[in-house]
Design goal:
single chain; Rossmann fold; Alpha-Beta Plaits; alpha/beta; 19 strands; about 575 residues; Ubiquitin-like (UB roll); EC 1.12.7.2; 5-stranded mixed β-sheet; 2Fe-2S_ferredoxin-type; 3 domains; binds iron/sulfur cluster; 4-stranded parallel β-sheet; binds 2 iron/2 sulfur/6 carbonyl/1 water inorganic cluster
């Protein structure tokens, strides 16, 4: 600890690792492209340079504060270097901002404005390299890559997957997917965390917007939408409303743009809670296939298929809420409406790019038609609303459609890390101990990447673990396999903070944004009337009407699946 002087202002530092963090703490921003507070420091882009007395120009991300240091963040020399860095990057960049999905969210675009870059002294790049559109989830445009390496680091450090890497050196340096293959052929789990950290439009979601417009405009199609838990506290950010609950406005907007029915994925999350909790209780009674792992994150499921085939029997056979709802709509609700599965077009709004991949898994079809036809990310949904001229901020709130209208707070919790576990615990305690009302399970909450606790539920002493980020999941799996840790159930979500931090959520997708979204998820739960899945009366009626009850042979057929290595 000590004090440094930044721009004449004395600032104390304690545990900050670099000058950049000290400055930002004091309310002085320094531009960065290759820096991310949650990843290792690369010091590659040189945009964060500052001038330090007796040390000259230094990168503030990789220079530690030393007591007595005198730093200038905005001197003439500093700005000259920054402008040159920006000009060099722009010279080698496809600058078609008007057609770029990242326009408005791009840091290179922002800094070019901030630093008044008007005319480039360097010729612009002539040859364009082909885009990689092979993946259902992620599109990569190499012409917009600035080689910051954040995608390389997030995939390696947070997910332990390591799909992206540098190739060649010097001016021929590029970033490629493993073995220089198309992304779809790699071990990519589709989580989109590389999109979330990419400062430019080099990585974006594989948009389903035009496909959805086409279905809405097709008179033969009944278009149905479901909305996941996490987008409801993030979509408002796209319209300047902050991380507040905008569920009712999203429903209104979807009706306005032409959806025939609008449902809540939370209804299906309650369904998942009931099916999965009973599967868990059954395995506990038999003492088999424990610990049970959750199955709702398709990033995690693909990771397990590729790297832990020995665990596939432990993963819950439940389909994710997205796919349970798709199955209900295409197998049952279609019949009720008297239409064929191929004449219904099911769209889901998800915080997630991996859900695009999940929807196209061959397991999840009905009579040759996908149970979920298209997945829009939160960002893509907002784009459609803007395109339709909807003034989102001013929309009134609407309710979801019947007969699958009710939802419980526990289902909403699915959107934050720990939420699936909390829902299961609420269901199990409600069932075994006949408890009424809401029970909050505090240990599962919060943004730590690993949370473990032992709870007494009736005669059962249950050790439960919640992880987010697959590197954290990998560490936990190693402890379980070595016998160091004995657990009964594990919730795994690939993204930091769970789905609130998904790869399809608005920028800035940083820890502050994730915490704000998660906080509102818990606020929604407290405001709702029902808090455990078994209290959802619409759901109980649907279970009765379609399958003669829950957790039986027929629900197993329609709502569960099997995973293969
Ligand atoms: Fe999630 Fe889900 S909670 S995975 O994070 O389980 O995407 O929001 O929709 O399916 O419900 C994502 C979010 C979902 C599903 C639910 C689960
Ligand atoms: Fe998708 Fe959620 Fe899994 Fe991230 S944690 S990959 S948003 S399901």
């Amino acid at each position: 600890s000590g004090k440094i002087i930044i721009n004449g202002q004395e600032i104390e530092f304690t545990c900050e690792k670099n000058i950049l963090a000290v400055a930002r703490k004091a309310g002085i921003d320094i531009p960065t492209l290759c820096y991310h507070p949650e990843l290792t420091v690369a010091g590659a882009c040189r945009l964060c340079v500052v001038e330090i007395e007796r040390m000259g120009i230094q990168a503030s991300c990789s220079t530690a504060p030393v007591d007595g240091m005198v730093v200038y963040t905005n001197s003439e020399r500093v700005n000259k270097v920054r402008k040159m860095v920006l000009e060099l990057l722009l010279a080698n960049h496809n600058r078609e901002c008007t057609t770029c999905d990242a326009s408005g969210a791009c840091k290179l675009q922002k800094y070019a404005h901030d630093y008044s870059i008007k005319r480039l002294r360097y010729p612009s790049r002539q040859e364009m390299a082909p885009m990689d559109t092979s993946s259902l989830s992620i599109v990569r445009d190499p012409n917009k890559c600035i080689l910051c390496g954040l995608c390389v680091r997030v995939c390696k450090e947070k997910q332990g997957v390591g799909v992206w890497d540098f190739k060649n050196r010097g001016s021929r340096t590029e970033i490629v997917a493993a073995m220089d293959q198309p992304l779809a052929e790699s071990a990519c789990i589709n989580c989109g965390q590389c999109i979330a950290v990419c400062p430019t439009g080099a990585l974006t979601s594989n948009s389903s917007v035009s496909e959805v417009w086409a279905a809405i405009r097709d008179p033969r199609k009944t278009v149905v939408c479901q909305i996941a838990p996490a987008p409801r506290t993030a979509l408002g950010e796209e319209f300047g409303l902050g991380s507040v609950d905008v569920t009712g406005k999203i429903v209104s907007a979807l009706r306005k743009i032409g959806f025939d029915r609008v449902f809540d994925t939370v209804f299906a999350a309650d369904m998942t809670t009931i099916e999965e909790s009973n599967e868990f209780l059954d395995r506990l009674a038999k003492g088999e296939k424990l610990p049970i792992f959750t199955s709702c994150c398709p990033g995690w499921v693909k990771y397990a298929e590729q790297f832990h085939p020995e665990l596939l029997d432990n993963i819950s056979t439940c389909r994710s809420p997205q796919q349970m709802f798709g199955s209900v709509l295409k197998k049952k609700y279609c019949q009720e409406l008297g239409i064929k599965p191929e004449d219904m077009f099911v769209v889901s709004i998800m915080p997630c790019t991996a859900k695009k991949y999940e929807a196209k898994r061959p397991e999840f079809t009905t009579a040759g038609s996908y149970d979920v036809d298209a997945v829009l990310t939160t960002v893509e949904a907002a784009q459609m609303f803007r395109e339709a001229g909807i003034i989102f901020e001013q929309l009134p709130e609407s309710d979801f459609d019947e007969p699958m209208q009710q939802a419980t707070g526990s289902g909403v919790l699915f959107g934050a890390t720990g939420g699936v576990m909390e829902s299961v615990v609420r269901y199990v305690t409600g069932k075994l101990l006949k408890t009424e009302g809401r029970i909050d399970i505090e240990f599962v909450r919060g943004m730590a990447d690993t949370k473990i606790a032992t709870l007494n539920v009736g005669d059962n002493k249950l050790t439960l673990a919640v992880v987010n980020g697959l590197a954290a999941a990998e560490a936990l799996i190693e402890k379980i396999k070595s016998g160091e840790l004995e657990v009964h159930a594990v919730e795994v979500m690939a993204c930091p903070g769970g789905c609130v931090g998904g790869g399809g959520q608005p920028f800035q997708n940083d820890s502050a944004a994730r915490s704000a979204r998660a906080k509102e998820i818990y606020n929604i739960d407290t405001r709702m009337v029902l808090h455990k899945a078994q209290d959802n009366q619409d759901l109980n009626k649907i279970f009765e009407k379609y399958w003669g009850g829950c957790c039986n042979h027929d629900t197993h057929h329609d709502l569960h699946t099997h995973y293969h290595p």
